[in-house]
């Protein structure tokens, strides 16, 4: 009831004052200010696009830099992507899931003798356990590492084991590698 009277009053006041919409007095294009007489505009160095490599041709981290787009064009994801994003795109183009994003086996409860296996190419792997049977408890996040590859869920007792499938020495590919929490304190 009150809101209708406020709206009606505001409408009457706007009509009584001859309400006019506010319009900019000049175009925004005219508001550019030129400072100084000299133009210090530097053209970017024009470099031609490199070569596209397939997933099988990737050998070192520098191979994961895209060729870039032709000058004056908008780059595609494949031309612009670098690093892990580029690796994922190249893998998807060849039908390979490089990050293995399939869910873990939830058809059984993992035990110490027969754990659920999680493949990992990195030093650490975060795994979410939703219980057995599936979705029987909230997601409990477990941290698996090379130094501590087996973890047990505190809610349901499910045991998950990380199998490392990456390079033997991670520092070879990642010079800025820093050890994980478990590597230092376990």
What does this protein structure show overall?
With 186 residues, the protein is an alpha+beta fold. Among the domains are: 55-93, no CATH class; 116-185, Sandwich (HSP40/DNAj peptide-binding domain). Helix content is 19%, strand content 14%. The protein contains 4 helices and 5 strands, in the order αααβββββα. A hairpin with a 6-residue loop joins β4 and β5. The radius of gyration is 29 Å and the shape is flat.
Helix content range of the residues, please? 10-25%
Might you state the CATH topology name of the domain at 116-185? HSP40/DNAj peptide-binding domain
CATH class of the domain at 116-185: Mainly Beta
For the termini, the CA-CA separation is: 67 Å
Total beta-strand segments? 5
CATH architecture heading of the domain at 116-185: Sandwich
